[in-house]
């Protein structure tokens, strides 16, 4: 008899798990509380009927599992993503660009050719990066990112480390985990040819994975139930009852807060670990400035007390609406507290030198965009109980909250469940165990 598995949540982690399970011949039911799949990386339709993403996302060449999953469900990364070498360029032309080639050689060439940097700036980065490499890109779990920068010049910190940290970890460098940041730097800058390439969406986020994956799953005979919030999760010996419906196993791919609610009665320690996570918001401000464009598709900005955004993305240069841009405020806790109207007004003022006469199209806030990736953070493990695995970008692992982290977590949960299903039924009930500390 074919095993039945419930996947609770149709974000990128849940979809990745569902594709792997359905591809292995398992009967899959995906239960999503929202009206559409995609989780926090989806598209919305505005009042004018145009699609705007819930937040601007970027991918990099090191997102190998995400790119492979897109291809598998029929979304072509070559046409849907603009791929260029990693470039952190400011409006005045200063900044760094990584050329193509072998990772170490490309990094040295990129640093040597950085515009606006003195030879002291460049030497400080090369020497510091050599130290990171010599230590295997590892450090104590309690180390903050700021400690990685002690040998760097102020300009390199401001124009490279700070933007990379807030883009990858959505946590200010003064508060962010150095262990996780080093893993990101290792895999991106030194992970192989093309790993550091910048991949910017040419199409709305929902078209990159959520919609193609949903179509693929339906063709495989899987169920996709939207607006279906799960009320309860109960153990039934070798299987689980999900909202009263019997399944052989479960992938819990809901948000950490929703997962904590569902597991409070079956795995209290895991539930407490998930509920203890703290979050950083991200605000995306969409502007329209017909006849204007930014210096490049992704422009690095000078953040300040009245300049909230760290990056601006020109949708016209990416094949979208000409004159439209997305201004991203990461680590936006202070600005959310001040109010979205205040944030949008500040971004409009920040944009005027580059986009004279720009007007506000829409402001969107994801108040729990990512967990705060701080030193020594304890994240919940993937296994909750026998035949109950959690999947999400918040699960214990070496990566921050990214699309790639979500996809990898989903695929890992699916692989573990498939192994347990092959091993046959187990009578063991939910087993409590403490959450391990994350490894670098």
Description of the molecule:
This protein has 440 residues and is of the alpha+beta class. The chain has three domains: 4-46 and 207-277 and 376-423, FAD/NAD(P)-binding domain, CATH 3.50.50; 86-189, no CATH class; 279-371, Alpha-Beta Complex (Polyamine Oxidase, Chain A, domain 2), CATH 3.90.660. The chain has 15 helices and 21 strands. A seven-stranded mixed beta sheet has the order 8-7-16-17-18-15-19, with helices on both faces. Strand 20 (383-385) and strand 21 form a beta hairpin. Helix 2 packs across helix 15 and helix 11 packs antiparallel against helix 12 (268-275). Residues 426-440 have low confidence and may be disordered.
Q: Can you describe this structure in just a few lines?
A:
This protein has 440 residues and is of the alpha+beta class. The chain is built from 15 helices and 21 strands.
Detail the topology: elements first, then pairings.
Blueprint: E1 4-8, H1 12-23, E2 27-31, E3 43-45, E4 51-53, E5 59-60, H2 64-72, H3 77-80, E6 81-84, E7 87-90, E8 95-97, H4 103-112, H5 119-134, H6 145-148, H7 154-169, H8 178-189, E9 198-201, H9 205-208, H10 210-219, E10 223-225, E11 233-235, E12 240-242, E13 245-247, E14 249-252, H11 256-263, H12 268-275, E15 279-288, E16 298-300, E17 311-314, E18 324-329, H13 333-338, H14 340-351, E19 359-371, E20 383-385, E21 388-390, H15 403-423
Parallel strand pairs: 1-2, 1-14, 2-10, 7-16, 14-21
Antiparallel strand pairs: 3-4, 5-9, 6-9, 7-8, 11-12, 12-13, 15-18, 15-19, 16-17, 17-18, 20-21
Helix pairs in contact: 1-10, 1-15, 2-15, 11-12
């Amino acid at each position: 008899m074919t095993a039945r598995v419930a996947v609770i949540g149709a974000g990128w982690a849940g979809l990745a798990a569902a594709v792997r399970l359905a591809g292995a011949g398992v009967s899959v039911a995906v239960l999503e509380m929202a009206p559409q799949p995609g989780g926090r990386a989806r598209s919305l339709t505005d009042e004018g009927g145009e699609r705007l993403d819930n937040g601007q996302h970027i991918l990099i060449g090191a997102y190998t599992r995400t790119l492979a999953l897109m291809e598998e469900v029929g979304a072509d990364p070559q046409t849907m993503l603009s791929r260029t070498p990693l470039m952190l360029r400011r409006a005045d032309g200063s900044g760094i660009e990584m050329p193509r080639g072998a990772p170490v050689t490309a990094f040295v060439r990129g640093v040597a050719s950085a515009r606006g940097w003195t030879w002291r700036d460049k030497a400080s980065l090369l020497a510091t990066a050599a130290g990171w490499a010599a230590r295997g890109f590892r450090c104590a779990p309690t180390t903050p990112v700021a400690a990685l920068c002690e040998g760097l010049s102020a300009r390199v910190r401001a124009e490279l480390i700070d933007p990379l940290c807030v883009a990858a970890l959505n946590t200010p460098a003064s508060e962010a985990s150095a262990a996780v940041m080093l893993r990101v730097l290792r895999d991106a800058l030194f992970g192989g040819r093309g790993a550091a390439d910048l991949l910017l969406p040419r199409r709305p986020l929902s078209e990159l994975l959520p919609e193609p994956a949903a179509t693929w799953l339906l063709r495989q005979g899987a169920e996709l139930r939207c607006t279906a919030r799960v009320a309860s999760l109960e153990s039934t010996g070798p299987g689980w009852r999900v909202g009263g419906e019997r399944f052989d196993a479960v992938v819990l791919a809901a948000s950490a807060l929703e997962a904590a609610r569902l597991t409070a009665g079956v795995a209290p320690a895991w539930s407490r670990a998930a509920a203890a996570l703290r979050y950083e918001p991200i605000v995306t401000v969409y502007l329209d400035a017909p006849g204007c464009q930014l210096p490049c598709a992704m422009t690095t900005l000078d953040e300040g007390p009245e300049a909230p955004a760290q990056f601006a993305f020109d949708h016209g240069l990416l094949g979208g609406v000409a004159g439209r841009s997305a201004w991203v405020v990461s680590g936006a806790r202070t600005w959310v507290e001040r109010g979205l109207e205040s944030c949008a007004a500040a971004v409009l003022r920040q944009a005027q030198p580059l986009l004279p006469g720009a007007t506000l199209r829409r402001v969107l806030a994801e108040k729990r965009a990512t967990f705060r990736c701080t030193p020594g953070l304890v994240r919940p493990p993937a296994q909750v109980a026998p035949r109950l695995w959690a999947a999400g970008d918040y699960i214990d692992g070496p990566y921050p909250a990214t699309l790639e982290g979500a996809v990898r977590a989903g695929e890992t949960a699916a692989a573990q469940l498939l192994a347990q299903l092959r091993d046959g039924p187990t009578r063991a009930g939910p087993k409590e165990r403490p959450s391990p500390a994350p490894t670098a």
